[in-house]
C-alpha cells in the first residue's frame, strides 16, 4: 500500500495527519481544562487520546515510508 504510493502523495497525507494530530491535541487540552471530572467528558478524552496515539503511529509509518531503502 504505502510502498506503491508516490512520495508526494505520502508527504501530502503526512501533512494532513500532522494537522489533525495538532488540532486534536488542542481539543484535548481545551476539553480537559473546561470539563474536569465529568464521566462523559472523561470518556471523550480517552477516545480523543486514543485517536491521537493512532495518528502518531500512522505518522511514524509514513515517515518511515519516505526513507529510501539502502542496500546493506
Characterise the protein shown here:
The chain has 72 residues and is mostly helical. The chain has one domain (7-63). It has 2 helices and no strands. The chain has helices spanning 7-34, 39-66. α1 runs antiparallel to α2 (39-66). The longest helix has 28 residues, at 7-34. 0% of the residues are buried.
What would you say about this model in short?
This protein is mostly helical and 72 residues long. It has helices spanning 7-34, 39-66.
H/E topology pattern: HH
The helix fraction, in percent, is: over 70%
Strand content: under 5%
DSSP strand count: 0
Please report the number of helical segments: 2
Report how far apart the termini are: 24 Å
The global form is elongated
What is the number of domains? Answer: 1
What kind of sheet is the major sheet? none
| Mean pLDDT across residues | 89
What is the SS-derived class? mainly alpha
Any low-confidence stretches, pLDDT <50, length ≥5? none
Radius of gyration equals 16 Å
Characteristic key phrases:
single chain, 72 residues, mainly alpha, 78% helix, DUF465 domain-containing protein, DUF465_sf, DUF465
Present the secondary structure layout.
Elements: H1 7-34, H2 39-66
Amino acid at each position: 500500500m504505502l510502498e506503491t504510493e508516490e512520495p508526494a502523495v505520502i508527504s501530502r497525507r503526512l501533512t494532513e495527519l500532522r494537522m489533525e494530530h495538532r488540532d486534536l491535541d488542542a481539543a484535548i487540552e481545551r476539553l480537559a481544562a473546561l470539563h474536569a471530572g465529568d464521566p462523559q467528558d472523561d470518556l471523550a478524552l480517552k477516545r480523543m487520546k486514543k485517536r491521537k496515539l493512532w495518528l502518531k503511529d500512522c505518522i511514524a509509518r509514513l515517515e518511515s515510508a519516505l526513507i529510501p531503502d539502502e542496500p546493506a
